[in-house]
Inverse folding.
């Protein structure tokens, strides 16, 4: 919420100071592009982490907050040791997605996090959308600079 208030204040100040609206639209587009680029880099990073993780099997144990996290995450037991999932848990369908009596195929990261099937799907979908975003930007730059 604070983000939108800051943006609104900046826009009003810029308009009062005489900045043309087209310049503000270009700045807004650049800000949106930077946010998408950061998200793309984040998904590429997590995909590399996923690919370099080792395959293992484990059991879902609980949903709890990790020491340093604000969000709840799923914990899995692999060979008697509990590891948190790399992404926060899905709060809406918690009873459907996480079953205690079931063995899951996981990917164990060297940093002590696991990728379950939901975080694996998130990484793949994020990588596909990130690749589409990057390819679209390269194509747009090609068209504009031609």
């Amino acid at each position: 919420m604070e983000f939108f208030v800051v943006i609104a204040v900046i826009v009003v100040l810029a308009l009062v100071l005489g900045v043309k609206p087209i310049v503000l639209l270009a700045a807004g587009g650049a800000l949106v592009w930077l946010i998408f680029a950061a998200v793309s880099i984040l998904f590429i990073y997590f995909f590399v982490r996923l690919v370099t993780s080792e395959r293992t099997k484990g059991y879902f144990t609980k949903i709890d907050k990790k020491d340093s996290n604000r969000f709840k995450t799923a914990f899995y037991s692999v060979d008697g040791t509990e590891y948190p999932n790399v992404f926060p848990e899905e709060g809406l369908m918690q009873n459907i997605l996480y079953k205690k009596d079931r063995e899951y195929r996981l990917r164990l990261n060297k940093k002590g996090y696991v990728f379950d099937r939901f975080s694996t799907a998130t990484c793949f979908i994020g990588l596909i959308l990130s690749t589409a975003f990057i390819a679209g930007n390269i194509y747009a730059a090609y068209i504009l600079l031609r």
Observations:
- The longest helix spans residues 21-51.
- The CA atoms of residues 58 and 79 lie 7 Å apart.
- The chain has a mean pLDDT of 87.
